[in-house]
Write a structure and sequence with these properties.
elongated; 32 helices; 11-stranded mixed sheet; alpha+beta; about 45% helix
């Protein structure tokens, strides 16, 4: 207060002196108090309620930012504390006057030039009157510290609560342990107070972790700067959780420990995840250690970070030596056919960010200089955001596989016996050469070889000797052509060659040289020497052919013609060669016959065979079955056109089987048509066919001897000549099953009569050449008469073919021929048509008596 304090004592005699002295003392005290207030930052003011008078000290003016000596109104002073603060202080002043209640608050204050400050305002009634004294203290700095502390505490509480962090405090002097709510939850219990004794905490620890936790606590007491560790706690529900804790020791000025404070948080999930990651890493490492593939990993810069044992073995680098090295130094790849290095696949993968691999045929150059064939793949290693962290290179040693593959590939394109290219590879090379001829007009040649007398080697010396002959022949053929030419074994004893950029004349010269070389070759075995020889067909390979196969067919045809015309010959293709055209025609017929058999386009005609001596046709069916081919356009082809090809290409047995099945099926039927005799032709090749013999026996056994008696198998005399023993055995078997046997074209051979002694036949069919000129040639008459005499002597039936005039028929009757066949009596008709007519006639005959009645 700036005013001097006045005292309320009565005056005395020396009052003036005493008054002056008192006033001086009061003034001195006032100045002292003012200095103390200013030094302490305290300001005071007083408000008198009844007069509304306001008194301020100088220090109060300074605190409020007012000029010294200026006394504001109470309302103006209170507004320095803001509207809310003014209202609160006004109410406090009134309440102090009314009931003497004081107050102690902190309020923000506008201190003028000093800015916003925080004032501690303490007030109360001064004595028994209506004066209220107020003291103010600037507590701006402590308030800010306290506010920051509160904010820090709030942030800490938010952090601990949000992060599940529990706070604990151990008072070492009192031995009291305090937990916050989070600590209780970390131990699986609801919060129930802040105090817990050390023994209760120890009981909550996992039995195996108690000693370590207590040891860590003792370590902090012994002077260690902090306590930190992990331990397991057992929850009331039986589950086990892992807590991580840390704390610091607080000490007094003498270094004596006062309290240990710290925090805990649950790391169970992290430890479980770490355990799973460790297990997976261990599993991965064990897997990578044990797999047969080599694995190499790098960082984003392409430097090696890890190799498994297989990679270490293949590269020659240990994991420690390779770590940090560029991948191209450890994995050195080069081409199979040259030492040229290949680009580093790891760098390419890291640059593009995509999986990659080296081209086929890559080789790995190991640290020790050894080369290995490898197959590899490289893929980038990415993090969750897709950034490339490195690359993993997986490769394997495929040296053995590649060697096996090369061998398989070689075997796929070469003949295993001779080492020459095989048919498949030859076909591909032939196609490529033909395409080049079409593209650039170049001229090449084809040679087709077929060995002579090779079967003799196999039969007499065995197949091992035959294989040796084939190998030696292959060597001589390869030696006789140029290096760029191709010699192939097509199969068996058939070979072929492609002579590139070679004219037909030059090819003829090469073919003759090879033919002569094989003619001079002799194979020695067991003291014997065998001559082989070969036939060669030569054909041009150029753009005149529609395809490469056509050229090869022409060469094959030339080779077959050379074989037919004699051994050890060369036949050159010529566009106007009649023999070649005939051979090709037979080849085409072979294909057409196979297709006709597959499509069931064969049909049967029947030509009647009738008694010669005036007996009329009694309507019963007897005759010879004749084979016909129905073309796709509906035309019919006689056997004379296709049987030579059928004989040549061994199709005749299939045709004979088909005819025999039809005949047996007809004889097995029960119907109005009475079949007395059906004759079926059997070719010479069929006599040698064991499958036909077996099927014929089965069919006749099924048919039965009674009906089999109507079947007559005709065998030509020329077929008997070539296979007399086979023919005799077949005839005996068929006759035993009830069938009859006819010797067809009898008289055509020079020794016809001698065969009759060895062959138990039933019918002699006189060759048509003796019948046609019977009326004009006396020798034919003598021959037919002798045939009839022999047949009668042997009790055989005679049948004359090619009866075309009445005169010939009468002469045959006079000579004693039993049955006749020819155009005079009946022209061949389709069998189905004859059967239909016979069925209709039989039906009409059955109804004729009823109609007459």
């Amino acid at each position: 207060m700036s005013e001097p304090l006045r005292t309320g004592a009565p005056p005395c005699d020396d009052a003036p002196d005493r008054t002056v002295a008192a006033e001086l003392a009061l003034a001195q005290n006032a100045r002292f108090l003012e200095r103390c207030s200013r030094l302490a930052g305290v300001g005071a003011w007083e408000w008198q309620a009844h007069s509304d008078a306001l008194v301020l000290s100088d220090s109060a003016c300074e605190l409020l930012g007012l000029p010294l000596g200026q006394v504001p109104t109470l309302a103006a002073l209170l507004l320095r504390f803001g509207p809310d603060g003014a209202a609160m202080l006004d109410a406090a002043l009134r309440r102090a006057v009314a009931d003497g209640q004081g107050w102690d608050v902190e309020l923000p204050c506008d201190a003028g030039a000093r800015g916003r400050r925080v004032m501690r305002v303490v007030g109360g009634l001064d004595g028994d009157g209506d004066r209220v004294g107020v003291v103010m203290l600037d507590v701006t700095e402590p308030a800010e510290v306290r506010a920051e502390l509160e904010r820090t505490v709030d942030r800490l509480a938010l952090a601990t609560h949000g992060g599940g962090i529990g706070v604990w405090d151990l008072d070492l002097r009192a031995g009291a342990l305090a937990w916050d709510d989070a600590m209780w939850r970390l131990h699986g219990e609801p919060p129930h107070g802040q105090r817990i004794d050390l023994a209760a905490w120890r009981r909550r620890l996992h039995r195996q972790d108690r000693r370590a936790a207590v040891h860590a606590l003792h370590g902090a007491l012994r002077g260690e700067p902090q306590i930190e560790g992990e331990w397991r706690v057992c929850w009331p529900d039986g589950s086990v959780h892992v807590l991580r804790g840390c704390g610091r020791m607080l000490r007094d000025g003498g270094g004596r420990p006062l309290r240990l404070s710290g925090v805990c948080w649950d790391v169970s999930e992290e430890r479980l995840l770490q355990q799973q990651l460790a297990e997976q890493r261990e599993l991965l490492e064990v897997t990578l250690q044990s797999i047969a593939d080599a694995v190499l990993t790098t960082d984003a810069g392409g430097r090696v970070t890890w190799l498994n044992p297989v990679a270490q073995r293949l590269t020659g680098w240990s994991a420690a030596e390779a770590r940090g090295q560029p991948s191209s130094h450890v994995f050195r790849a080069q081409r199979e056919d040259s030492p040229e290095p290949l680009p580093d696949p790891v760098q390419r993968c890291l640059t593009t960010g995509r999986p990659t691999r080296m081209p086929g045929g890559a080789m790995l150059l190991a640290r020790d200089g050894e080369l290995r064939a490898v197959d590899d793949s490289v893929a980038p290693i990415r993090d969750a955001a897709g950034r490339v962290l490195g690359a993993v290179l997986v490769f394997r040693d495929v040296t053995q596989q590649r060697r096996q593959f090369d061998e398989i590939r070689w075997r796929a394109s070469h003949d295993g016996l001779t080492g020459l290219v095989n048919r498949s590879e030859f076909g591909q090379r032939l196609a490529r050469t033909f395409e080049r001829a079409q593209r650039d007009g170049s001229h090449h040649a084809l040679l087709a070889f077929d060995l002579d007398r090779f079967k003799l080697i196999n039969d007499h010396c065995g197949h091992a000797a035959g294989d040796e002959v084939l190998r030696q022949v292959a060597q001589r053929l390869e030696a006789g052509v140029r290096g760029r030419d191709t010699v192939a074994r097509l199969g068996g004893d058939e070979f072929a060659a492609i002579l590139e950029n070679c004219s037909l004349d030059e090819a003829l010269h090469v073919a003759q040289k090879l033919c002569d070389a094989l003619d001079q070759y002799r194979y020695a075995h067991a003291g014997q020497r065998f001559r082989i020889g070969t036939c060669v067909g030569v054909a041009p390979l150029d753009s005149r052919w529609p395809d490469a196969e056509a050229a090869l067919r022409e060469a094959d045809a030339c080779c077959m013609i050379a074989k037919e015309q004699g051994r050890n010959r060369v036949q050159v293709w010529a566009p106007d060669d009649a023999t070649l055209r005939a051979h090709q025609s037979e080849h085409r017929w072979a294909t057409r016959l196979q297709q006709a058999l597959d499509e069931d386009r064969f049909e049967l005609d029947l030509q009647r065979v009738l008694p010669a001596q005036g007996a009329e046709d009694d309507g019963r069916l007897r005759g010879e079955l004749l084979l016909r081919l129905r073309e796709r356009d509906g035309s019919r082809v006689l056997p004379g056109a296709f049987m030579p090809a059928a004989e040549r290409f061994h199709i005749a047995p299939r045709l004979d089987r088909w005819v025999l099945r039809q005949a047996v099926a007809l004889l097995a039927q029960d119907g109005p048509v009475d079949v007395v005799s059906l004759s079926v032709n059997v070719s010479g090749l069929t006599l040698q066919d064991a499958a036909f013999h077996q099927e014929a026996r089965a069919l006749l056994l099924q048919l039965g001897p009674e009906r089999a008696a109507a079947l007559c198998l005709e065998i030509t005399e020329t077929a008997v000549i070539t296979r007399l023993s086979d023919a005799a055995r077949f005839i005996t078997q068929m006759r035993a099953l009830g069938a009859r046997i006819a010797l067809d074209d009898f008289g055509a051979g020079a020794s016809s009569y001698s065969y009759l002694k060895a062959l138990p036949v039933d019918v002699l069919k006189i060759d048509g050449q003796f019948v046609k000129a019977l009326m004009t040639d006396p020798l034919d008459q003598v021959a037919v008469r002798s045939f009839v005499d022999v047949a009668q002597t042997l009790n055989l039936t005679t049948v004359a073919e090619c009866v075309e005039t009445p005169e010939v028929l009468l002469e045959l009757v006079r000579l004693g021929v039993g049955e006749v066949q020819g155009f005079l009596l009946h022209r061949p008709e389709p069998l189905l048509q004859l059967l239909a007519a016979a069925t209709e006639e039989a039906a009409s005959s059955a109804y004729a008596p009823i109609s007459a009645y």
